[in-house]
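Q: My collaborator sent me two sequences in one message, no labels, and asked for predicted structures for both. Can we handle them in order? The first one she listed is below.
A: Yes, handling them in the order given. First sequence, followed by its structure tokens:
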Amino acid sequence: VESERKNLTDLKKQVVALDGSIAEKQRLFGEKEELFKVLQKKQNEKKEQLENLKRQYQAVSVGVAADGEGTAKTLADQLMDAKSELTKQQVEVRSITIRIEHAQRELDELSKSTKNTDQQYKQLMKEEKELKQKLEVSEEERNNLNFEEEQFNAVVEKNKKLMVMIKTLQESIMGLENRLRGLDFHYEKPTSNWDNSKVHGRVAGLVTIKETKYSLALEIAGAGRLSNVVVQDEDTSKTILKNGKLRNRETFIPLNQIQTRPVSDAQLKAAYNEVGKTNVASAMSLLSYDKADVRAIEYVFGSTLVCHTSDHAKAVTFHENIKAKCVTLEGDLFDPMGTLTGGAAPNNRNNYLILRYELSQKRKELENLTIEHSETQKLFNELNQKKNKKIDLDNKINLDKQREQLLEKRISQTDYHQHINKVEDLKKFLQTEKENLLHHQNLATTASSKVNTIEHQIQHFDKDIQLQKTKQNITHTKQLYKDLTKEATQAQHTNLKLTTQIEQYH
């Protein structure tokens, strides 16, 4: 095992050494590759130079000289071409100079005439400046509105839906109120100074059930007393009976006279212990009512318990420590005197307790929707105001932009504005022509220098000396080309060798 570990360590060292060797050879390969490209470029340049020198040698051999482009021409022909080019550039320089002088004179005259701005131009420029400032203010005001069409449309749509929902709820409430008209107590004022607040109303109209599942049980518990009329005192009931011109026979519950026997705390506690707190409750605890009517509610519902099932009701009703009437959720009534009333539920289309519960819920829903609609309407009004403001600003901005275009057109048609444009055009023209003049002056200088050079060559031309110089240049260039070729070949060979070594490592 130790031997294998040593071999593994040696192999790892060899791998590291090989990686280093490969990296070094790749670096050398890159350097040689770059060197080869440089040498190849120099080699091509020397080859082209050598070809040019050979053409010059041939030209001198037949008694002519090569021009700068390597074309064989006599010195006289070259001199004629050079003088022709010089004349051409001198003519162009004179022509440009004349154009510059003419343009400069025109510019000077226009500059003098535009010093005094005419009154119309000043007024139009002032109007344009004021209009631009006005446009900036309007556009900034429009941007600051932060009005978004999508948000506005969403609010409009929400408002429509809320109005439909409110209308539907109002119709539903109206229908429930019509069905509850049976709870209305109709009578005529028995005296001229009669106080209507002494008549509280029918029992069924004074209570609201807390949960719909108790509606049948509470209807059975209230029985005929649900239609009884609650009044402030005995005198109120007597006065109504005597002078109220009642249409039907009525039973009154005077709050000051009635005797109540509500289920005691001890009885309720015993019931909890017997069947569990979740299976029994006092009828009154399942109702909502005004404190002013509490004695009447105790009179009607106070002595009754509500149980979930018949077994619970039976256990509670006949318990020796309870002995209270019990009604089940199914409407079965257990009396401690031993009677049991049950069977089919009363076929009463207008279960006033359930109707009042539904009416209460729908009124709450309507109240919430009305608040939501009020808030949405407020937001709509704000957004609609912004929208109208934006429309006004859009129209104002569009109108001002049209006025701006008309002003710009009128300004452009004034003599002063046209003069200014002409001045600017002349300045640009002069700048271009001056640059053009400098260019042709340089070309003329070059052509003149070439004429002098060729004239000097004609005066001092010696064929043998020219041949000797050209021959020497050819020999020197050939040697340079040969050396570059050899160096480039060596670099290419080294690269091939490095490529082979790198491939062997892989």
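Q: And the one she listed second?
A: Here it is, processed independently of the first:
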Amino acid sequence: KAVVSTQSTGHYYITNNLRLVMTSMPNPKSQMAEAYVQKHRIPELFENMTAALIHSQPENAKKFMIKYLETLKEYRDEKGNYPAMFTDANMTAVFGMLDVTNKGYISMEQYRSALKTLGVKKYNARPEGSDKDQISLVTFITEAKQGLELASSNFAK
């Protein structure tokens, strides 16, 4: 466990599932610190950066993390490309694994499961094709990109 001390507010530690947890919460300063951490989505930032780090496995992890944070800042400042860990090709491959009979669509259940697997926690619950339980590749990629961008939006202004 990595421990981060905060002056007079207790300690935070990062759990095995990358959650930032405060060990003592009763005093107002601790509550303010917790509110700050949640407001700025610090646990999500570290979770996303760690996932990108593990996915890329660069030779120089510190340099990679610096570049990752710089990319987030550029995105925030100029609305450039968000740091996506998954490309269209990756998402097409995921879709293809689910559409084993090549029907050209997947079910809503498969759609939800695939998005969760990609790390998308908030997504469109009624995407195009949901009324027929047939989500196309185009819809899947569009929704996945939007969900991944939203998941990366913890660095928004």
